[in-house]
Design goal:
single chain; alpha/beta; Four Helix Bundle (Hemerythrin (Met), subunit A); Rossmann fold; 434 Repressor (Amino-terminal Domain); 3 domains; 8-stranded mixed β-sheet; 20 helices; 59% helix; binds guanosine-5'-diphosphate
Length: 439
Amino acid sequence: MFEDLSTKLESAFKSVSGQARLSDINVAETVREIRRALLDADVNYEVARSLTSAVKEKALGQGGLASVTPGQQFTKIVYDELVSALGQEQEEITFSQVPPTVILIAGLQGSGKTTFSAKLAKWLKDQGKNPMLAAADVYRPAAVDQLRTLASDIDVPVHSIAEKDALRVAKEAVSEAKKAARDVLIIDTAGRMHVDEHMMDEVSRIRQTVNATEVLFVVDAMTGQDAVNTARQFNKQIDFDGVVLTKLDGDTRGGAAISIRNVVDKPIKFVSTGEKMDTISPFYPDRMAQRILGMGDVVTLVEKAQEQYDEVQARKLQSKLASNSFNLEDFYGQLQQIKKMGSMKDLVGMIPGMSKQLGDAEIDDDTMKPVEAIINSMTIEERRNPQIIKGSRRKRIAQGSGTTVREVNDLLKQFGQMKKMMKTMTKMNKAGRAMEGLK
Ligand code: GDP
């Protein structure tokens, strides 16, 4: 996600990093490059313009700082402006004082509305709520079945009826929720091909009838400025409460994410990054800005890790990384933990510099199977001291794991590179902490 934009911004910062201090000339050049990068990423013109003029003003106003390079200084200024464009603070959904909280989910067909409704139910359930779903997307025949299937996977009840009457489904669902003591009701409304009067009218009537607590509008981030325009149009009439950005795992250039807050003047409340039920996350402007700037989303990674990780193990790992004594045994243990945390590809994307290093290489969970088999065929001593694995040992391991010597060689080589990268990351973290001091 956003790789192209990250690369271009990084190269813009590089152009000043060789300079001893920020002068008028290199500021203007760099700001121009930043603006071009934003426009290439399909950021709304006005948003790109105001963001870059704020960057320019700050860069010129600050002058040089003795303790950091101009490149670092610029990165920090752009980071602050990005956070501000993305909405500054995380905005949560509102819960009603009197249950059930009713959340309407609206969006165009294919935006990921039904999938998101179910994901939100799961997310709320994981937060200790007791949610229920309602299938008010009554025009697309498969939508009700789709919601039922997703809901049964996450074990959340769904209210639906045979008639094509969205208002009735919604109304009945509220009574059902009250009866069953469900504290949140999520209503999946009908999507259309375009935002039209029908769609807005229906959402508006459901909202009134059920006295909805929140209306969330779902947009597909891959559609760029179309997503932004659709949200603007819908908001004019509906005045909704928040945006959900889906398909951020895809090949999106980032324009929708960066522009929508300013253009529509509504916060992004959630992002969705995949088809699986656990690929949903509240939206944090600061983390997104870090990701765009190639700083990686370390905080989310850490949180995910905290949800699944064994604290004692994690602390041990940290000290091993710091002392660079991380071995294949630890690596194997990590693989098992990572498998619990979700898809490899998502996780890799959160580590600074990692997605760039891997380029377009496909990483899926099967990729790790031969790796596991190879490590399984090693003795404990070999796992602890991979450097002793020479010719005959490599042959034995390949035979034992049903792989080839070449695969064993590759793994050992990659492990060596990974250790080197971790060393760099430890250094980067130190540099990051130094940057924090600038705040
Ligand atoms: P709806 O018509 O708006 O209800 O859209 P659906 O929920 O049926 O989603 C349309 C398609 O997009 C489905 O194939 C979903 O699996 C897929 N989808 C939804 N959200 C995401 C996402 O965040 N990432 C990816 N890659 N696919 C998604």
